[in-house]
Amino acid sequence: MIDVNFLSAMDLFAEVQRELLEPIVKESNVRELQRGDFLFSEGDDANDLFIVLEGRVAIANRSFDGRESVVALMEAGDLFGEMPLFRPDGRSADARVLENSSVVVIPYAPVKSLYLKNPDLLWRIVDMLAERLKVMDVALADSMFLDVTGRTAKRLLELAGDDDEFGLPVTQEELAGMIGASRERVNKSLASFIKLGWLTQKGEKYVILDRKQLEIRAT
Fold first, then answer.
1. What are the angstrom distances between the C-alpha of 203 and each of 165, 200, 206, 207?
2. Cβ(36)–Cβ(57) under 8 Å?
3. How far apart are CA 81 and CA 60, in angstroms?
């Protein structure tokens, strides 16, 4: 189970009075999922939003020939699936579990009730959606102005964060989907970074040897 403190820590509910969150907590539950499970598929009816407790979930679209493009990677603390709450369409993407995960499931009904009774709280939603648009603008610019090698460098730096040694939380196929290229082209980029001495592989992990050069290549 989750509590009011947990919801208060989420951006979506950060400015909501604690007593107003109690009906949402009562109707929420936690689902345990295995790698490969789908929370929802593109076109499904939408009735819930989700918060990752632990694990990772890929938000992805598929082309007509089955190729997957990962548009977002949801990790612990990330909230997703809220868009149909405000516009009652079906799901616009798949949500596939990348590793064994725990996810909070929050029905739309008590959340809608909260905002209908307290419309001033919707400004927090506007802020959140504006931030999502900004992220999408950056992703669109990357696809227009960065080649596959540049996008690979940028994604590696994002996955590494402040650490020089890191493991990929996704398969090479999934990494390619996040970058928007074939696995072969992404592997070629990785091999070039290793050959240049910017990156090395240590078992199942990668080690950044020259962060500055990767940062230059990612811009």
1. 11, 10, 8, 10
2. no
3. 12
Cβ pair 100, 55 in contact under 8 A: yes
Condensed to tens digits (0 to 9), the pLDDT of residues 175-209 reads: 888 888 888 999 999 999 999 999 999 888 899 99
DSSP letter for 62, please: E
> Quick check: 196 and 214 in contact, CB under 8 A?
no
Domain coordinates of the chain in residue numbers? 4-122, 144-217
Whether the full predicted model's pTM is greater than 0.85, yes or no, is no
Task: Confirm if 42 and 36 have CB atoms less than 8 A apart.
Answer: no
Closest CA to 21 of 8, 30, 9: 8
CATH of 4-122, one of 3.30.70.590, 2.60.120.10, 3.30.70.260, 1.10.520.10: 2.60.120.10
- CATH fold of 144-217 reads Arc Repressor Mutant, subunit A (1.10.10)
Residue 86 half-sphere exposure, CB side, CA atoms within 13 Å?
A: 11
pLDDT 10s digits, 47-58: 999 999 999 999
Buried b or exposed e, range 138-147, using 16+ CB within 10 angstroms: eeeebeeebe
* Dihedral, CA of residue 72, residue 74, residue 79 and residue 81, to nearest 10: 50
